[in-house]
């Protein structure tokens, strides 16, 4: 193979690899139908998260003298595919990018996780509440592939009321945006 052929071949390989990286991320997780976003939305990015689900021992509403672990908030780091921290997830629920773009979520649907000791999978509608940036066009989020995060199995009592419990969890957050129209073919 001549030097010119080798260079041409290498450039062709790099071009193909570059085009492949432009493809949107693909989910390999089987998600229940009720957790699917709208037909006009497409997967924009997969954001792994690692952190804690925070619970607090509180008196049960309408059950005098009984106590339970009540969910308070998540606290988690958000990461890119290479493991670099790109933001955080916290009470609201909010997802905030390091660039200042921020989302507020509202749960639309939930489904039990495949593992009994994992927090549920959810579909959330989102609203941009921060500056323009990486997260500002996100319209829906799925929380899937959850591990851990459930309330402590041991009960709580009046003696432990107000005590927090920080339970480790991981999850993948699938960020969806409105599907962009395909302008590759136009009829005149």
Description:
There is one protein chain. The protein is mostly beta strands. The protein has one domain. Helix content is 10%, strand content 46%. It is built from 1 helix and 8 strands; from the N terminus they run αββββββββ. It has an 8-stranded antiparallel barrel with strand order 1-2-3-4-5-6-7-8. A hairpin with a 4-residue loop joins strand 4 and strand 5. The longest helix is centred in the N-terminal third of the chain and has 19 residues. The radius of gyration is 22 Å and the shape is elongated. The protein starts with a helix and ends in a 10-residue tail after the last strand. The relative contact order is 0.22. About 11% of the residues have low confidence.
Give the topology:
Elements: H1 3-21, E1 41-59, E2 67-79, E3 85-90, E4 94-97, E5 102-111, E6 121-128, E7 138-148, E8 164-178
Antiparallel strand pairs: 1-2, 1-8, 2-3, 3-4, 4-5, 5-6, 6-7, 7-8
* Rg from Cα: 22 Å
What is the quaternary state of this protein?
single chain
Question: Regions with pLDDT < 50 over 5+ consecutive residues?
Answer: 5-24
Number of DSSP-assigned strands: 8
Structural class: mainly beta
Largest sheet: 8 strands, antiparallel, barrel
Order of helices and strands: HEEEEEEEE
Tally of discrete structural domains: 1
Percent of residues in helical segments? Answer: 10-25%
Number of helices: 1
Numbering strands along the chain, what is their spatial order in the largest sheet? 1-2-3-4-5-6-7-8
Tell me what portion of residues adopts beta-strand conformation. over 45%
User: How far is it from the N-terminal to the C-terminal residue, by CA?
Assistant: 46 Å
Query: Please, what is the average pLDDT?
Result: 88
State the shape.
elongated
């Amino acid at each position: 193979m001549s030097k010119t052929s080798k260079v041409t071949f290498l450039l062709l390989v790099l071009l193909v690899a570059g085009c492949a990286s432009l493809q949107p991320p693909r989910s390999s997780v089987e998600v229940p139908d009720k957790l699917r976003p709208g037909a006009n939305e497409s997967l924009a990015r997969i954001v792994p998260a690692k952190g804690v689900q925070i619970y607090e021992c509180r008196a049960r509403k309408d059950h005098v003298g009984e106590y339970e672990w009540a969910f308070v908030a998540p606290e988690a780091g958000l990461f890119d595919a290479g493991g670099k921290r790109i933001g955080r997830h916290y009470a609201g629920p909010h997802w905030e990018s390091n660039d200042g773009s921020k989302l507020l979520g509202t749960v639309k649907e939930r489904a039990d996780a495949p593992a009994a000791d994992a927090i549920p999978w959810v579909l959330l509608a989102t609203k941009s509440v921060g500056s323009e940036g990486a997260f500002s066009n996100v319209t829906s989020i799925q929380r899937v592939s959850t591990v851990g995060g459930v309330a402590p199995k041991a009960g709580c009592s009046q003696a432990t009321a107000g005590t927090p419990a920080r339970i480790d969890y991981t999850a993948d957050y699938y960020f969806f945006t409105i599907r962009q129209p395909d302008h590759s073919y136009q009829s005149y």
